[in-house]
Every structure is written in structure tokens, then in C-alpha cells.
TrEMBL record:
Gene Ontology MF term list: endonuclease activity; hydrolase activity; metal ion binding; RNA nuclease activity; rRNA binding; tRNA binding
Pfam families: RNase_E_G, RNase_E_G_Thio
GO biological process: rRNA processing; tRNA processing
Name recorded for this polypeptide: Ribonuclease G
Predominant location: cytoplasm
Cofactor: Mg(2+)
Species this protein is from: Atribacter laminatus
Keyword list, A-Z: Cytoplasm, Endonuclease, Hydrolase, Magnesium, Metal-binding, Nuclease, RNA-binding, rRNA processing, rRNA-binding, tRNA processing, tRNA-binding
GO cellular component: cytoplasm
Length: 493
């Protein structure tokens, strides 16, 4: 599978896109005003220990304390403990790593199980386990790597062998472990010298982590629109994978690089609630507090002969596109997928096989539950960073993120009810109000009778006008209070 990377660098933001066989599958963002936290290591102070939820809150120097669950605490040789207060006390200084970025009202989630990713391995200080990427399928290669790691693994250090280590020499893997060990020693030395809360280690910039984690033998081309970034990227790749230096290209054009590769359009589509399939079917994405729900519909696709074949083709196409969209939008947590009901078990198996096949391309770990009788598929996907929607969007000021607002009819009725209440209780002879364009048009067509009745029943003068500077559905009511000497105006709302 050919992989291409497109990088757009500016002073305010660095963004990148990963393409597989010419189709974008992941977006990455790094903004100058907002630092990435995932992977960073801190020396923190325990602020609260809560045995009731077996968790603690750790001050790492940010506005919100980080959350530490007992299952994320590295235990010593004594093994299992019954309660978190046996491990932590308020005021204790500990070294933690950010496992999940802060999201919404929640602070970062941290762990004391530190992991340092390198090019070929991940080093885990304080642990005693060894693992090999499941993507390395060759049993011969797995046996070779296992024997090597057993031989060179540092004492009291866990090691996970990454996919890109396949076929690499013993010297390359050994050097990677040694460089990570040197990094860990520097981090621990710094932890001894400074007071908490403090930063001990920050993950490399987006471009470097992207090259480290994504680039493998399937690399096609890398395009970057900054000459300064181009030079630094060449030097970095030359130091770790020199055979790929010729695949880096400087995009020297006045045209925006994302526009040139049609990535802006793909980015816009990735934020849409509805995604169209090539056949004419479509997907609908709805995000709730607890999960993301994806609905599959046949839409415009009516098939040719058989209903079951029409449904099968739509679901197969949907399975492939859902796997891509989950990566593209970086959706984490619980995901519920409502495929179109299929009457045949073999069709269900075909859809699940395709779905699993395309999910296997995802670098983020996910867990899949087999399809239910209702055609529902449950899955979870590890959440580390903010999803695409959270990075690029914010709740609407009008609907507060609900996706729906009160109809103009409802707003008009509420407005007229408020005017009636003022007329009933006010001693003033005149009540005036201004309304937005849309609300004003509705009142002209539908509210005249009601307003005339108010004038007659309460003997009030109602003066109103449409204000083009007011929001379309907003209104402002003013009560005019008159006495013998003067006239005053009280703004009610």
C-alpha cells in the first residue's frame, strides 16, 4: 500500500495529511497557540486521592488537574493492592505521562506506566514484559525478534517491537533501544533536580513524530511547502532512513498545497454529518456524550434485481468507508454502527470481514463486536487526541451544539406572550419593541390580529419596527413611562 504525506506549514499552524493509495485517511494538526500533550512526561503533585472511585487528581501545572486511575499506576514487586490510598497520598510527587489529551470539561488522563516510542521499539521503564507488533505476521521473523529482544533488553525495562522493525538488522534495533535508554536516564536526572509541577519531556513536533510513526517501506512521496521545513526534514530523514531522502519534495508554488492535492475539500467533507457513498447510499454520523452512532442508508441506490443484493452492496461499500471515516475523523470511544438489516448470515459475515480488513490498516487500536441480529455492530477505538471535530469546530452560539434551534413560530409565540404580560401589568400607555428581520416578517404575516387585540383589550399603544442590525430572530421590548414633567424609557429586554 503506497503512502504519501502532504505537509502544510505556516506560522500559526502545521497540518498534514496521510494518503494511502491516493486516498486521504488521516489528518494531523499542530497549532502554535495550543500545545499537544499526549506523550509528554511531567513531574506532578498528587492533589486529591479518591478511594471511592479508585482514582487521584494530579497537578501537572495546567489549569485542570490530570486524572490518574489505579489501573494506570505501575506497581512494584509487591504486586496487587486493594486501594489507591495504599499507593498515593496527597502531596506526593510522582512522574506521569499524558495518555489522553484534555477533552471538553475533562483534564488530561495520565499514567505512571511510561512508554518511550522510538523508530523500531517502544521502551517501557519499570516493566518486565516484551511484545511484538501483531502486524508482523512472519513466524520466522517474530522468533528472530523475540530472541534478539530477550538478549539485549535492559534490566527492568519492557520492550515492544514496532512493525517497522521487520527486516531490520540487530544493530539498528539495539541502537534504537540504547538511544531510548539514554533519553530515559536524562528524564530521571531532570526529575531529581527540579520541583513539581514541571515538564520533564515533551514529544517531538508533529512532523518528526509523523515520520517516526508512519513512514515505512511503503512510503511514496513527501511534499512540504516550507523550504526551512524541507531542509530540516531532509536532515532528519537522512539521519534515520537515508534511502528515503530523494522522496522528499519542496512544493514551490503560490497555490496552497492542501488545495493543490484537493485536501481542503476532503477536510470539509470529514466535518459533515452526512457522507455519500459512490453507489448513491450514504452514512450519517451523530455524536453523543456517550458514543458516536453511524447509520447506513441505501439513499439513491435502488439496485437492479434483488433487494438483498442491493442491501449487501450498500453495506459492503459502507463498511470500507466507515473504516476510513473513523480514522479520518479520529473518532474514539464507543462507536455503534447500524448497518442495513441483512436476511442472510453469509452476507453479514461478508460485511464483517470487509470491515475488519479495512480496520486493520488503522494504527490506533480498536476492538470489534460481531454483528447483532438487528444489524448493529459495536466497537471501541482508543482515544488519545481530540477528534477532528473537536479540533476544528466549536458549539454553535445559537443551538449550543444541539444541532436544532427553536422555530420562528415558537419564538414569535413566546414574544407575543411576553408582550401580553407587559401590557397586562404595565402602567405605561406605550410599549415599543424592535424585532429582527425574520421575526418581523412572521409578525407581519401572522401576528397582526393578535397585536390589534392587545391594543383593544389593554388600551395600549404598541409601536414596533424591524431592525436590520438585530439578529434575525431576536427582539427588544421597551416600555415608555410618562408623567406630568417628563417622559422616560425603560428597557425591559
Amino acid at each position: 500500500m503506497k503512502k504519501d504525506i502532504v505537509i502544510d506549514m505556516s506560522e500559526a499552524e502545521v497540518r498534514a495529511a496521510l494518503l494511502e493509495n491516493g486516498q486521504v485517511v488521516e489528518f494531523f494538526f499542530e497549532r502554535a497557540a495550543e500545545k499537544r500533550l499526549a506523550g509528554n512526561i511531567f513531574k506532578g503533585v498528587v492533589e486529591n486521592v479518591l478511594p471511592g472511585i479508585q482514582s487521584a487528581f494530579v497537578n501537572t501545572g495546567f489549569d485542570k488537574n490530570a486524572f490518574l486511575f489505579i489501573g494506570d499506576i505501575l506497581l512494584d514487586e509487591k504486586g496487587k493492592v486493594n486501594s489507591i490510598d495504599q499507593l498515593l497520598q496527597t502531596g506526593k510527587e510522582i512522574v506521569v505521562q499524558v495518555a489522553k489529551e484534555p477533552m471538553g470539561t475533562k483534564g488530561a488522563r495520565v499514567t505512571t506506566k511510561i512508554s518511550l516510542p522510538g523508530r523500531y521499539v517502544v521502551l517501557m521503564p519499570g516493566m518486565n514484559n516484551m511484545g511484538i507488533s501483531h502486524r508482523i505476521s512472519s513466524s520466522e521473523e517474530r522468533d528472530k525478534l523475540k530472541k534478539l529482544i530477550d538478549k539485549i533488553r535492559p534490566a527492568n525495562m519492557g520492550v515492544i517491537v514496532r512493525t517497522v522493525a521487520e527486516g531490520k538488522s540487530n544493530e539498528e534495533i539495539k541502537e534504537d533501544i540504547e538511544s531510548l535508554l539514554r533519553l530515559w536516564n536524562r528524564i530521571m536526572k531532570k526529575a531529581e533536580l527540579i520541583s513539581a509541577p514541571a515538564v520533564l519531556y515533551e514529544e517531538a513536533s508533529l512532523i518528526y513524530t509523523l515520520i517516526r510513526d508512519v513512514v515505512d517501506d511503503n512510503l511514496g512521496e513527501i511534499w512540504i511547502n516550507s523550504y526551512f521545513g524541507f531542509q530540516k526534514l531532509k536532515d532528519f530523514i537522512d539521519s534515520i532512513i537515508p534511502r528515503f531522502v530523494d522522496r522528499i519534495h519542496f512544493f514551490d508554488s503560490k497555490e496552497n498545497i492542501f488545495e493543490h492535492f484537493n485536501l481542503n475539500r476532503e477536510l470539509e467533507k470529514a466535518l459533515c454529518r452526512k457522507v455519500w457513498l459512490k453507489s448513491g447510499g450514504y452514512l450519517v454520523f451523530d455524536r453523543t456524550e456517550a458514543m458516536t452512532v453511524i447509520d447506513v442508508n441505501t439513499g439513491k441506490y435502488i439496485g437492479k434485481k434483488d433487494l438483498q443484493e442491493t442491501i449487501l452492496k450498500t453495506n459492503l461499500e459502507a463498511a470500507e468507508e466507515i473504516a476510513r471515516q473513523v480514522r479520518l475523523r479520529d473518532i474514539g470511544g464507543i462507536i455503534l454502527i447500524d448497518f442495513i438489516d441483512m436476511g442472510k448470515k453469509e452476507h453479514q459475515k461478508m460485511v464483517m470481514n470487509v470491515f475488519e480488513q479495512f480496520l486493520s490498516h488503522d494504527r490506533t487500536r480498536s476492538s470489534l463486536v460481531q454483528m447483532s441480529e438487528l444489524g448493529l455492530v459495536e466497537m471501541t477505538r482508543k482515544r488519545v487526541r481530540k477528534n477532528l471535530d473537536a479540533i476544528l469546530c466549536e458549539p454553535c452560539n445559537c443551538c449550543q451544539g444541539e444541532g436544532r434551534v427553536l422555530s420562528v413560530e415558537t419564538i414569535a409565540i413566546n414574544f407575543l406572550r411576553r408582550v401580553e404580560e407587559i401590557c397586562r401589568h404595565s402602567h405605561s400607555m406605550t410599549v415599543s419593541f424592535t424585532v429582527g428581520q425574520e421575526l418581523g416578517e412572521y409578525l407581519k404575516n401572522n401576528g397582526k390580529i393578535f397585536l390589534n387585540n392587545l391594543k383593544r383589550v389593554y388600551s395600549k399603544e404598541l409601536a414596533w419596527k424591524i431592525d436590520p442590525n438585530l439578529s434575525l430572530r431576536r427582539y427588544s421590548i421597551v416600555e415608555v413611562v410618562e408623567d406630568e414633567d417628563r417622559e422616560s424609557i425603560n428597557k425591559i429586554e
